[in-house]
Sequence to fold (258 residues):
Amino acid sequence: MTPSDSREPAQRSAIVTGAARGIGLAIGARLAADGMLIALWDRDAGQLEEAAQALSAQGATVLAVPVDITDRAHVDRALAQSMEALGQPSVLVNNAAILGRSGPTLDASLDEWKRVFDVNVFGALQCAQAVVPGMVRRGYGRVVNVASIAGKEGNPFAAAYAASKAALISMTKSLGKELAETGVLVNCITPSAADTDIFAVYDQSQRAQLEARLLERVPMKRFVRVEEVAEMAAWLCSVRCSFSTGAVFDISGGRAMY
Ligand SMILES: NC(=O)c1ccc[n+]([C@@H]2O[C@H](COP(=O)([O-])OP(=O)(O)OC[C@H]3O[C@@H](n4cnc5c(N)ncnc54)[C@H](O)[C@@H]3O)[C@@H](O)[C@H]2O)c1
Fold:
């Protein structure tokens, strides 16, 4: 037994942010299949309720928690609600993010950069600040930050998004090192493009161009499936992952070799 696995609770509960759809919903479903109780956090209350009903219908124990992760009071309330219904969380998946506007970096407004950082970086930080101290006290936890290959390589015309994901990667490394002896492991994953509604902010022709550009760089020449991302996240959220922390896990069809 190592400090990383010795205190795994018998009944595990997980918080997944941005879980109303896409990658977050797939991660929620995959963790539920591993027997975890799942708090689905998202600011889109309508879609969240549908997602929770779909997972419940498959036999999962889920709680839908409408929350805007940019607001610390919301986050604290969401955590209290989640703990009351499902017990102390031993897993946090920081998945909620926005893409922001597409455009030349030199024309970007500071407000737009702040909007993207508010969700993608400060939102994830606030969730960690609310949830992780309890894990540290209990001596066990798994945190998975959903970053992006954009954070390693930069995406043209999406500088705020790419920079926010680079910040999340870096935050993962810092926090992972800080908590390395506590039993709480902090890792991140860096998927290449997945065909989800994150691109809905673009019109159809912008979206087609972007997708062609993104896929061209993926040696496997396809989108990653949300279930594939969820599979990697599930291992990182489990006790089976015991000697990796502050690490960046690639899932990019061969695009990133690091
Ligand atoms: N789709 C891709 O190509 C891709 C590639 C690499 C990484 N990612 C990352 O995967 C994660 C999920 O992406 P997705 O494609 O499923 O996106 P998505 O847009 O389908 O889902 C994101 C969810 O986050 C929620 N959200 C946004 N802001 C929020 C806030 N302030 N508070 C609470 N919830 C909020 C949205 O309502 C939405 O349900 C993101 O971190 C994204 O950056 C996506």
In short: The chain has eight helices and seven strands. The CA atoms of residues 32 and 116 lie 29 Å apart.
